[in-house]
Design brief:
Layout lengths: L5 H26 L5 H6 L6 H12 L2 H14 L1 H33 L4 H8 L3 H10 L4 H19 L3 H16 L3 H25 L8 H12 L17 H15 L3 H4 L11 H16 L4 H8 L4 E2 L2 E2 L5 H9 L2 H39 L7 H32 L5 H25 L5 H21 L13 H28 L1
Antiparallel strand pairs: 1-2
Helix pairs in contact: 1-10, 1-17, 3-10, 3-14, 3-17, 4-5, 4-8, 4-15, 4-17, 5-12, 5-14, 5-19, 6-7, 7-17, 8-9, 8-16, 8-17, 8-18, 8-19, 9-18, 10-17, 12-21, 15-16, 16-17, 17-18, 19-20, 19-21, 20-21
């Protein structure tokens, strides 16, 4: 379905080429300073805390925030806005303030490059570090989400087949991430965040005409399309059916979501502790703006009341791209497209960097370290080469999984990604929480908590289990993760209590 004009297509190609050139400039600038895997993972440049804060905001709000989640809002209405724009972000902001300083303090003292290394050094367990390294593979589902979201936007803008766009995206982004690492990522994320700020204001302002009769008139338009769109809960959805899903589950998810490696490890890029407050303020203020962008889904539903374009049903993941192409003049539309691209790429860069580093440093080197050169310089070179090969492998896997989501979507790639990502941070939350606030935490407590989280999450999701006193089910990954995290905290706390008592005795 081609809805982009020839003018938009031509201008779109010019934009993509220019944007790529700017990104490559910063990649080369950062890559020239990389000498070892540590430089790749956490950088060796003294970045401004404001720049790192913007990089945090860009990484935390992704293609899901700007492209995928507004689709849920278009389908299910105000209930989704409450969940995705207010409840979850508020919990996440509080969590990142409480967890950042403690995580950074330990990570800096032991020079941890990855989440797995943080876990291993905190609990003095190589096996636990290896366990988390393998769990990091779950984050490939998030990479797939971003690849699909970017493919949807660019294929509609450029009138190019989705497969061609997908391959081009992966080759380009994964290609430059083989060389760029953290040094380049902070530069590119800062540029991307600035673009996203501009685009966030454009998108939020694009629906001003729908408020000609005030907020009440806006809601009347939505209600005329479907009364459920203006309800606080929406029983016809599978994400926002009751307060358990909208409030409780999202609070738990928001608190735990910061435990993703491309988010919480951002603080390790700061060179001094005095930079932390500036970093947090810049990151939080910017993120709150980005999370509000999901409101655009309500605008899109007014524009496409029957969720069709030229008689063709809109897929949930394609709502935003269709809205942009339909509603904006060519050059404004291109700026918006640029923001959507930036939203996806900023997070994708962080994921590629963190996942590849973890596979290299926490799986390959511990298991096959004897095959690496003993000489320090040669060892560093071999590690960097290995990391680049890993990135190629992740790229190939991402193409296959993303293409499958494009041709055989199961409602939304967002659900596919949430299942994997939520499982990861469900397992990570208790070890990070206990590790920062309980000095005498035992390995038994956190290992039990992580295993329980994984088992409960996947059991609820794949078993579509119900929640007592609620109509919510594990079909919603947020519900399965919230139950998993709760169970993890309880079991981890019980084991902690008994192992501490035993140690005291």
């Amino acid at each position: 379905m081609d809805i982009a004009s020839k003018e938009l297509v031509t201008a779109g190609w010019i934009l993509v080429i220019a944007y790529s050139a700017v990104i490559l400039f910063f990649v080369v600038r950062g890559a020239l300073k990389i000498k070892n895997l540590s430089d790749y993972a956490v950088g060796n440049i003294a970045f401004s805390p404001i720049a790192v804060g913007l990089a945090l905001a860009a990484s935390m709000t992704s293609a899901a925030t700007f492209i995928i989640n507004p689709g849920f809002i278009a389908f299910y209405g105000v209930s989704g806005v409450i969940s995705y724009a207010f409840v979850m972000p508020a919990a996440a902001m509080i969590s990142i303030v409480l967890l950042t300083k403690g995580f950074r303090k330990h990570g800096s003292s032991v020079k941890a490059l990855t989440m797995a290394q943080w876990m291993g050094t905190r609990y003095k367990s190589k096996a636990y570090s290896l366990f988390f390294a393998f769990l990091t593979l779950l984050l490939i589902t998030f990479i797939v989400l971003i690849c699909v979201g970017l493919t949807k936007v660019l294929s509609k803008t450029l009138n190019v087949s989705e497969l061609s766009v997908l391959i081009g995206l992966v080759v380009f982004i994964f290609g430059y991430m083989m060389f760029g690492g953290a040094n380049s990522m902070v530069y590119t994320n800062t540029v991307q965040a600035v673009i996203m700020i501009v685009v966030a204001f454009i998108l939020l302002g694009s629906g001003y005409e729908h408020f000609s009769n005030g907020v009440h008139g806006f809601f009347e338009k939505l209600s005329a399309i479907d009364p459920k769109l203006t309800q606080i809960t929406n029983e016809s959805s599978f994400l926002f059916r009751d307060y358990f899903e909208i409030i409780f589950a999202q609070v738990v998810i928001g608190v735990a979501i910061v435990c993703q490696p491309h988010i919480i490890t951002k603080s390790l890029l700061l060179k001094t502790d005095k930079d932390v407050n500036k970093y947090l303020i810049a990151g939080i203020v910017t993120q709150m703006l980005f999370f509000l962008v999901v409101i655009v889904g309500l605008y899109a539903r007014i524009v496409f009341p029957d969720l069709t374009v030229n008689g063709v049903p809109l897929k949930l993941d394609g709502v935003v791209s269709a809205y942009v192409v339909r509603e904006f003049p060519v050059y404004i539309g291109l700026v918006v497209v640029l923001g959507l691209i930036s939203a996806g790429i900023s997070t994708l860069e962080g994921l590629i960097q963190s996942v590849s580093t973890s596979i290299t440093a926490d799986i390959i080197k511990p298991l096959f370290g004897k095959y690496f050169p003993k000489d320090e310089k040669k060892n560093s070179s071999a590690s960097i080469l290995t990391n680049r090969i890993v990135i190629v492998f992740i790229g190939i896997v991402s193409i296959f999984l993303s293409y499958n989501q494009l041709v055989n979507p199961n409602l939304s790639v967002g659900i596919f990604a949430q299942n994997g990502v939520y499982a990861y941070f469900s397992a990570a939350f208790v070890p990070i929480l206990f590790g920062m606030f309980l000095k005498d935490t035992s390995k038994a407590a956190v290992i039990t908590a992580s295993v329980v989280a994984i088992v409960v999450h996947f059991s609820y999701f794949y078993g579509n289990l119900g929640v007592p006193f609620s109509i919510a089910t594990g079909q919603n990954p947020g519900v399965s993760a919230a139950i998993a995290i709760t169970a993890s905290i309880v079991t981890g706390g019980i084991v902690y209590f008994f192992t501490r008592r035993k140690a005291d005795a």
